[in-house]
Structures are given as C-alpha cells and as structure tokens.
Design goal:
about 0% strand; globular; single chain; about 70% helix; mainly alpha
Length: about 280
C-alpha cells in the first residue's frame, strides 16, 4: 500500500464575524470557570486583610475627605452642589472609583493570569467575565455605604434609586470596553497601565466628580466635551433623586459602548493567543 502524505496548514478562512461568534460562545461556556476565578480572587483579596471589604471604601473616602477639607477651610471655592458637599464629593469619588476599576480590570486580570495562560488551554474570555463578576461584587459593597451616606445626610431613599444599578452597569460597560481595547497593548508594555492611571488622575479634574460643571470658561468646555461627564453626572443625579440633566448624552455614550465592547472583545480574542505565544517563546 502506497503511503500518502497530508500537509495540515493553519486555517485562515475564519472571518471577523466567526471570531466574534466564538468569543461570545466562550463567554457563555466559561461562566462557571469565571465564577470560580472571581470567588478565588475575592477571597484572596480579603483573606489576609485586617480591614477586609472596608478597603473598598478607602480610596473614595480619602479623596472625598481631601476635597471636603479644602472646601471647609476656604482653600478652594466651589459652586453650590444642591446637596451637602461631603455627600456630593463621596458619591462622585465612589462612582469614579467604579469606573476606574472597570477600565483597569481586563488588563489586571489578564496580566495576573500570564502564568497559567501559557500552560493551560482555556477560554481567555473567562478572565473578562471573572473581572466583571468582581466589579459587580465590589460595586454592590460600595452601594451599601452609599445608601448609608444618603440616610446620614437626610437625603433619603427615593424611587429613582431603583435605576441606580442599571445606570452603574452602563458605566461598567463603557469602562470594560475601554479596558479591553488597551489590554493587548498593556500585556506587551507594562508602562501602559501606569500611563492609564496617570491619565485617569488628570481626567478626573476635567470631569464633574467633586464639583459641578461651571457655567462658563475653559473648564466648562472641557467637561462638556468629556465623554465621562454624562456617565458621572447621570449616576449622581439618580442617586440624589434629581432629574438627570444629561440622560440623553448618557444613553448615547452607553449605546456607543456596546459596539465598542464587541470590537474590544474581538481585538482581545485575536491578539491574546498571539501575545501569550510570544511571551512563552
């Protein structure tokens, strides 16, 4: 019998739609693995911590305290916020910390899993879903303190608070989409994450996190052009029970975030295996 030789070549015929379809399928199929990874990371995060989940409040509390101190001492003059300023500053910094965490989550989770990515073949999308699980957990913990602050300052709990989780989810989608787009680059260059955190520190000052949008001037223009402004303002308006003034802009940003998330997911799907192969070479 004559021997036959077969040559196997890598398949390149799969289009972008095929990659996206496979990525969405792996997100669904890896939900149990993602949950296990999230539970493991959350337990590890607080296991050897004396203060536990209190650390989730440290950053927004300290940032808010600094601005409250500057306001009380007259170092800076701020426009009337409509609610007690400590509450305004805390809610703003709390929302900002959630957004910042959403942007950093994809790159942090993927970088932390570099050791197993090169050794074990599993759906890489599990890392994304795991990050989302952790975001939802951390956000729910922060909601508890937010409600406590609302009651403490006699703002009261209103019906609009029922929309607050949905408004925050829109913010998480935007942050995760941005995080997915920068993750492959961040995997190759460690400086990317440092630049992101440095950039977010600057962007915070042109976002109405701890003060309202000015009525005139350069800062007013910068804030109105800033796509993060509708996200922060709308969530704060809902928390305070006031009419969301930038609801239309918020919905536009969220709608743009959905295709942006899918593009990021596609970029992640194609690039991460290549990057892992390069790192393990």
């Amino acid at each position: 019998m004559q021997n036959q030789t077969k040559i196997y070549q890598k398949e390149h015929s799969k289009g972008l739609g095929g990659y996206l379809k496979d990525s969405i399928a792996d997100i669904y199929n890896s939900r149990f693995l993602a949950k296990q990874l999230a539970v493991r990371d959350i337990k590890a995060q607080y296991r050897q911590s004396y203060f536990g989940v209190i650390w989730a409040f440290i950053t927004p509390l300290t940032t808010a305290f600094v601005w409250v101190f500057l306001s009380v001492t007259g170092t800076i003059q701020l426009t009337d916020t409509g609610v007690p300023y400590p509450l305004f500053a805390f809610v703003g910094t709390l929302i900002w910390s959630i957004l910042k965490e959403a942007i950093n989550a994809p790159i942090q989770n993927t970088t932390a899993a570099k050791g197993i990515l090169a050794k074990i073949n599993f759906p890489k999308e599990a890392l994304i879903v795991s990050g989302i699980y952790k975001l939802l957990f951390n956000s729910s913990v922060k909601f508890v303190m937010l409600f406590g602050f609302l009651l403490f300052f006699n703002v009261g709990l209103n019906v609009s608070l029922l929309w607050l989780p949905l408004a925050v989810i829109g913010t998480l989608i935007f942050g995760t989409a941005i995080g997915l787009l920068i993750t492959p680059i961040g995997m190759l260059y460690k400086d990317v994450l440092k630049f992101i955190n440095l950039g977010l520190t600057f962007v915070m000052y042109i976002t109405p996190v701890v003060y309202v949008i000015p009525k005139e001037g350069l800062m007013k223009t910068l804030m109105e052009l800033n796509p993060l402004t509708p996200l922060i303002v709308t969530v704060k308006d809902i928390a305070f029970g006031t009419t969301p003034l930038l609801l239309g802009e918020y919905l536009v940003i969220v709608l743009i975030s959905i295709p942006l998330f899918l593009i990021g997911l596609l970029f992640y799907r194609i690039s991460i295996p290549i990057i892992v192969e390069r790192m393990s070479a």
